[in-house]
Amino acid sequence: MSDKKILIIEKASELFAKNGFDATSVQEITDACGISKGSFYLSFKSKESLLFSIFEYFSSKLIERIGSIYQMEIGPRERFEQFFVIQFEEIARYSDFILMQMREQTNPINEDMLGLMNDMRRKTYEAQESLLLNLYGEDIKEHMTDLVVILGGIVKGYIEIIVFNKGSLDYMGLAHYIVERIDSIVNGLSKPFLTTELLAGNGMCLGNQSVTTEELLNEIKLVKKEIADEDLLISLEVIEQELSITNYRKPVISGMLSNFKNNEQTEQLVRKLKKFLN
Question: Considering the domain boundaries, does residue 272 fall inside one?
């Protein structure tokens, strides 16, 4: 995304939050950005398309920040706490804009918007699943669907407080408190109640066939930027080459995956690749 588009998005989101979507004109947005109307329409077809881009920009920032957790040199518990802190911080940062959306209901619920929302939910779920497994081990895998739903309910309640009260909460303290509550829930797990298929039906997780080669190739490019180990880079390049051809060879990709054992930087990518292969 160009610097000009980002400028327009950030200025427009401030104006929408302050004055409302309908009450904010394109002229006011261009004045705040110091650009002409012509320059605006070169970037966005309309004010409605700008609104969609604002959601796209905010969600990409959230997912990018969540992705950065895996580069932090901290333990599994601290990493899981950061997962919540980042969500609370991003919600607080755009709470006025969120309130405007709820008040005016300007959200254009169309196929593109639903796709964007489902993609963000799915990526957040994947990160949460990975963090839960890192902290509590593979034994909780069969309970993952229930854990995601329970956590969603807990987090939603605190998000509402952040949005409506605009109070300054101790996000680190809150994250620590939530993870302690999850400890209690995990310790009390017995027989799973929900199935993965039910969660997938809500757009919150991937079925085995839902990962696309395009998505994997994009993620490989991102992971390569963070990897310094030459052997791992070579393995990533081999996988990348295989996925770039129509008749990719599953045994070759599976063989390369064994090289990433116990590597936290590639854990989420490896999980997706395994789903893709299965």
Answer: yes
